[in-house]
Amino acid sequence: MKNSLSYLFCFFFLIQYSIAQDRITGEPFATRSVVLGQNGMVATSHPLATQIGLDILKNGGNAIDAAIAANAALGLMEPTGCGIGGDLFAIVWDGKTKKLYGLNASGRSPQKLTLEYFEKQGMDKIPSHGPLPVSVPGAVDGWFELHQKFGSKPMTEILAPAIDYAEKGFPLTELIAWYMQRTIPFFESKGFPNIEDTYKTQNGGKLPNEGEIYKNPYLANTYRKIAEGGRDAYYKGDIAKTIGKFIKDQGGFLSAKDLAAHKSEWVEPVSINYRGYDVWELPPNGQGIAALQMLQILNGFDFSNIEFGSAEHLHLFTEAKKLAFEDRAKYYADMDFFDVPVETLLSEEYAESRREQIGKRAGTYAAGEISAGETIYMTVADDEGTMISLIQSNYRGMGSGMAPPKLGFMLQDRGELFSLKRGQANTYEPGKRPFHTIIPAFVTKDGKPYLSFGVMGGDFQPMGHTQIVMNLVDFGMNIQEAGDAPRWDHTGGASPMGATTENTGIIRTESGIPYSTTRGLMDKGHRIGIARGVYGGYQAILWDEENKVYHGASESRKDGQAAGY
Questions:
Q1: What angle do CA 315, 316, 317 make, to 5 degrees?
Q2: Going by CATH, does the domain composed of 267-374+438-550 fall within 1.20.120.450?
Q3: Would you kindly state where each structural domain of the chain is located, as residue ranges?
Q4: Among residues 50, 80, 183, 375, which one is catalytic?
Q5: Which of 3, 19, 405, 495 has its CA 20 to 30 A from that of 247?
């Protein structure tokens, strides 16, 4: 019996600390070396999309051309995470003007849907699926805004690779096949129309498995219309009319007029300085400034003697997250409807007042008093020094379950992220952009580009951004190690959808976090849990100014690839 217990102890010890391989150099948890290239780099969550982007660069296109082409491919190849039924955000470092630009290409709520409608229906939250959470899809307009400002190749050439793959087919990758085999039956069980025709009929009446060929000729036709007719083909033509009629027939409110009125917004990115590095995010309606608030709070702690993955590391991180997310719940919203105090939230003085509340044990907090999902992330860099950090999503994986007939894509359900409680920053209003989880990020140093990166994954994203920056700056990892390092998140607390804080929440850790850390966190009063697949999807490109070399990294938890030349 004693020998059996010893064996079990050794077995679990080895599992706890096991790694996939014995690397000669670098951190043992790294899955591969950093990818290097002098002329250009593409990092996406799908190898074929990465190759499309790389081909565009090699054939004379720039980073923006390649990003649009790769994003279009991902809408086909990874429909469980993105598509032209969703929204888009981007941060661009323009190699010519040596300046950062921010694009908010998120859509607004239907003009004819009111808060009173939900109240009369007795709803205390917007449903997660069906026609009611559908807001205007902003991605296609985002493509054309990026293209008009920075693009070089014609859209017919940019969208051609995705059209070709949609018509001829491509093999489904492991992760996407797994998601689709679970998601499509769910929507079918709900009785939503056009699901079988959109995702099965065009593939011989069945949903392909990993390695089997998947086609979407409806999406090919839609892409072709957009390539030839421009953004108006989507927002003012037959596509808009089809979407509007379909949603009305399903009992929803999104109309062709809502699509025709849509426009993206160029915004100024905002930043804080973290130990000499300027970390940039977009202002609300997204949650990017939550990462900046966390970093600003953590700026006041010395991590030089704190070990990565230790109880003290996770404790300070989690308490900073709780503080930032309380502010997120109270203040983050569409800035056309609410005066978000961004400057104050990011100030060192405010961070100090929040930092002082952190003690040795797990705490609960309130927002500061101020007078006032699934996603894809990708990044591209070119030989002119332009770098784009782009994130795009339908929310909740594939979206609302609303697939307009014969268009080849599903509409997003971002409207679920409004609050239905009156008087809050993020309370539902017609024509308002909902609180958004998807956020691109960028880092500069001494006024020069340093890192384009992002980590997808709902509420995890600000936590993921903060972990990546700390891994690079505080713990000296390279960009592949920074993404492969074991992660954790914290769930619980207030939300922009109206939830309030009831307890200290739960820290959920990946298996690479040692039990000694778990035990130490318990001693500090934290509750510990586990979760599957909530830790995001990371891509990154770093610019080595001294050697004039791009460093690329791709998420080991996904099917992706970084490639350069």
A1: 90
A2: no
A3: 35-91+104-266+376-417, 267-374+438-550
A4: 375
A5: 495
